[in-house]
Specification:
Layout: E1 10-14, H1 17-35, H2 42-63, E2 72-76, H3 77-82, H4 84-95, H5 100-113, H6 126-142
Parallel strand pairs: 1-2
Helix pairs in contact: 1-2, 2-6, 4-5
Length: 145
């Protein structure tokens, strides 16, 4: 993307890896019965979730340095959910994006419309946590989850 848009702005929203695992698993549990013609093993799907997340973030961390600091901002999903307006303002400031003042009323209106949205909560056992940590400790440690 940087070859095509060298001045592109990037917003990296990272989320609790434990929640990411269960959210991704729930997605697959919902779509696999709809799109598969053969039997599948959820344990194999889980291993694929572990593999692709790890491969994606390893590549991202290797190449992140290619993005200019002034074109990159990283935010924690949980902070964004807790304080969306404040986080949007911080994103605009960090990336020096124009027209925040012009858009702020629309942001506030949209945020108000989303006030009843609740992220799904997952019951994470000690065994689940250990298994996920074993695969994704590099992000769990980096982001202090």
């Amino acid at each position: 993307m940087l070859d095509i848009y060298p001045e592109a702005k990037f917003i990296h929203i990272y989320r609790n890896p434990y929640e990411v695992f269960f959210s991704t698993k729930k997605l697959y549990e919902g779509i696999m019965p709809l799109f598969t013609l053969q039997n599948y093993d959820m344990k194999e799907i889980e291993e694929n979730i572990f593999y692709f997340y790890k491969a994606m973030y390893e590549k991202f961390f290797r190449e992140q340095h290619l993005i200019k600091d002034e074109n990159y901002v990283e935010i924690r999903y949980e902070n964004f959910i807790k304080e969306p307006f404040k986080t949007l303002k911080e994103i605009y400031e960090a990336l020096k994006l124009p027209d925040f003042e012009k858009s702020k009323n629309r942001f506030k209106k949209y945020i108000a419309q989303q006030k009843n949205y609740n992220s799904r909560r997952y019951k994470i056992t000690k065994e689940d946590k250990e298994r996920i940590y074993e695969h994704w400790k590099f992000t769990i440690n980096k982001w202090d989850y």
